[in-house]
Write a structure and sequence with these properties.
CATH superfamily of the largest domain: Glucose Permease (Domain IIA)
Number of domains: 2
Oligomer: single chain
Mean pLDDT: 90
Length: about 350
Amino acid sequence: MKADRLALSFALAAVLGACSPPQRSDAAPKAAVETPAPARPQVPGAPALAFPLACTIGAGCEVQHYLDRDPAVGAVRDYHGGRRTYDAHNGVDIRIADMAAERAGVAVLAAAPGRVARLRDGVPDISIRAAEAPKSEGQECGNGVVIDHGQGWETQYCHLARGSLSVRVGDTVKAGQPIARVGLSGQTEFAHLHMSVRHNGEVVDPFDPAPGAAPLWTPAAAKPLAYKAGAVLNTGFAPGPVTMAAVEDGSVPGADAASPALVAFVRAIELEAGDEVELSLKDPDGAVLATSRVPLDRDKAQYLLFVGKKRPAEGWRAGTYRGDCVIWRKGQPAVRQSFEMQL
């Protein structure tokens, strides 16, 4: 979805949360027994949703936006009480690493068994930031598929790659079946899947579908989808300064022993005003070669930071070089990410 938080709406052409004082005892203490919290009930008739992409959270894709639970105009709140959403956002955005991944192909998977009810194809894959981008009004979803799961439940998959749809209206699909690939169609500026869940036409948050109810995700999907305060989407090493455009395109050149400089970079997503992004480059002995800690003056859908050092006269020492990133929130580390390369 748009990184500057433009609203997304769906339009397919077809219809388209008495203590007592402790008693003293001379007996040996008993081991504490934890009582597990009672399981929350499932929503009756709701589909169990599998993870809808052929990628791994934390290693190739991340949740960029959750559904906006605050009905007030201009106010945002995700299911966890955070701000990892934007005004009126009606689904979950799962973002892949870059356009290189998009070009290689990342499959979109049916989240649950059902029947293909509606679809659209033919919308070009192009960022809305591009000067030649067509108008997206009425086609905000881009290329999309809607799957009917019965009893009024539907899932919707948006921003699919043009020409990648592998299903037709009326087809029966299984959970985990590929139905298309992630694209850049419709109202978006980065490659991702926007997935919405509806029941009888009303949007449902799969993470918190009803008061006291369990999430709609299967246990296998719920584990990697556990809430994060933010995330690091890209890391790497380069021979010189790095641009956001090159990171998004997946075209940052790699560093090697002949590089005139060694630069470590990170791209983080969904950061908040007041966060501090810290990045250090370390040599094979763990000594810090370069470091930076930058405070953010406003919320950032994405943020790029790099630090580096010029090659010494004697050349780079052989060994393992390391990048360490910490995102600080209210004085505490909210996100940590380390990455390495051999020279």
